[in-house]
Specification:
- The chain contains four helices and 28 strands.
- Helix content is about 10%, strand content about 45%.
- A hairpin with a 5-residue loop joins strand 2 and strand 3 (about 70).
- Strands 4, 5, 7, 8, 11, 14, 17 and 18 form an eight-stranded mixed beta sheet that branches.
- It has three domains: about 1-25 and about 60-190, Immunoglobulin-like; about 190-260, no CATH class; about 270-395, Immunoglobulin-like (Sandwich), CATH 2.60.40.
- By secondary structure, the protein is mainly β.
- The longest helix has 16 residues, at about 10-25.
């Protein structure tokens, strides 16, 4: 019983090696370079055929057999070679798998931003095989916490192939011999507000999945292939346990507090803003007005209140909106005139919701517009939002022009 770690050559590498061997002097004698005869300057370099045309022949390829003799390989395409390589390394005749899974099980425990996994794979060698059999295991997003454990009458080599989907076990044994591999791995847990998620890829085989989540009363969703379903879960007051059967392949788990616990979860806001600054003349007076169309969403508890900072030198313009009450928090007009920013507090007055909710805010510049005026090209900002983005449009009447200055 032996476990090794090494790097392997793929089919493309083998093809390059074969070509290098042929070019390097291992071609048959008839293909080796021969002394170049001295051409008669009076005669043409190429003698045309009787028909007056020159024909092109297809390239010829040779490989060595087990006795070291070069053998002609006629009319083989790369696709045919690739299929042969895959059957040789991981499958049997007619594409039949060389390793038959009998059991795949995954247990895991989440702890903050990581998940500890244990993968146990059992199977047997199917049919008479020479050399090692390739067994893809997946789990490209996880790494080993300790050396893998192997049980069986044979040898096992474990390697990581990122371009092939993760870990690969190479197993050598007699026909119908049984093999068992146990791997202890560490993966990551992603956070978005109150929601948590983790994903990993497993062998495509019915798999027992037993996960313990460090969140009480969690609602758990499992996604595999193109299907999504709520997973059955049990709660012991401190954690949530999920035990289910999957078909393997790409698996994603998402969990969040149950509806009764959402009200106590922290409100984590995401916002987008399409804002504009309009410079225009109304009734003979130049005015600079700002407008923001906000879209706010919560990943945690329901939206209750949030604060919005207006662009510098702008004052809030009250507007009627039955779903919101808006309170101006900063009242120092002198500070605003000196480049300060107004902050307003928005209170949602509709039914409890995590959004998205949409809000329109108006503001007007407090700066004198008698002569040229400098404005900071800034938009409206939802304070303490975990993530926000947007754009600012400038709209100018024909009689005005904008000059952009660097700060």
């Amino acid at each position: 019983m032996r476990i090794q770690h090494h790097a392997s050559l793929g089919p493309l590498t083998l093809a390059l090696v074969l070509i290098a061997m042929i070019d390097g002097g291992f071609a048959p004698r008839s293909l080796r370079a021969q002394p170049m005869p001295i051409a008669n300057p009076a005669s043409p370099a190429v003698q045309p055929s009787a028909g007056g045309s020159v024909s092109e022949t297809a390239p010829v390829f040779y490989v060595r057999d087990k006795d070291g003799k070069l053998v002609l390989v006629p009319d083989i395409t790369f696709e045919e070679y690739d299929r042969w390589w895959n059957r040789k390394e991981g499958g049997g005749d007619n594409g039949a798998p060389a390793f038959a899974f009998t059991s795949v099980a995954v247990t895991g425990t989440t702890n903050g931003d990581r998940v500890e996994l244990a993968l146990v794979v059992e199977g047997r060698i199917a049919g008479e095989r020479q050399g090692y059999v390739r067994v893809p295991l997946g789990l490209s997003d996880a790494f080993l916490r300790k050396p893998a454990e192997y049980e069986g009458d044979g040898d096992l080599v474990l390697e990581f192939q990122p371009k092939s989907g993760g870990y690969v076990a190479w197993i050598r044994g007699e026909k119908d011999s049984s093999h068992k591999l146990t791997m202890q791995l560490l993966g990551s847990v992603r956070k978005l507000g109150a929601e948590r998620s983790t994903r990993f890829e497993l062998p495509t085989f019915p798999t027992r999945l037993d996960m313990t989540l460090d969140m009480p009363n969690a609602v758990v969703e499992v996604t595999e292939a193109s299907s999504k379903a709520t997973a059955p879960a049990t709660n012991n007051g401190e954690t949530t346990r999920v035990n289910l059967e999957t078909n393997g392949g790409q698996i994603e788990l998402r969990w969040r507090p149950s509806r009764g616990a959402v009200a106590q979860a922290a409100t984590v806001l995401e916002a987008s803003c399409a804002s504009s600054v309009r410079i225009e003349r109304i009734e003979g007076r130049r005015r600079i007005r700002g407008e923001a169309n906000l879209r706010v969403f919560s990943y945690g508890g329901p939206i209750e209140t949030f604060d919005v900072r207006l662009p510098p030198d702008m004052e809030y313009t009250p507007t009627a909106n039955p779903n919101f009450s808006i309170e101006r928090l900063t009242a120092d007009a002198e500070a605003i005139n000196n480049g300060g920013s107004t902050v307003v507090r928005v209170k949602w007055q509709g039914a409890p919701t995590s959004g998205p909710i949409e809000l329109r805010l108006l503001a007007e510049s407090t700066k004198s517009t008698a002569n040229g005026v400098k404005l900071e090209a800034a938009g409206f900002e939802v304070l303490d939002a975990a993530r926000q983005w947007g754009h600012v449009d400038f709209v100018v009447d024909d009689e005005y022009a904008i000059e952009w200055l660097e700060r």
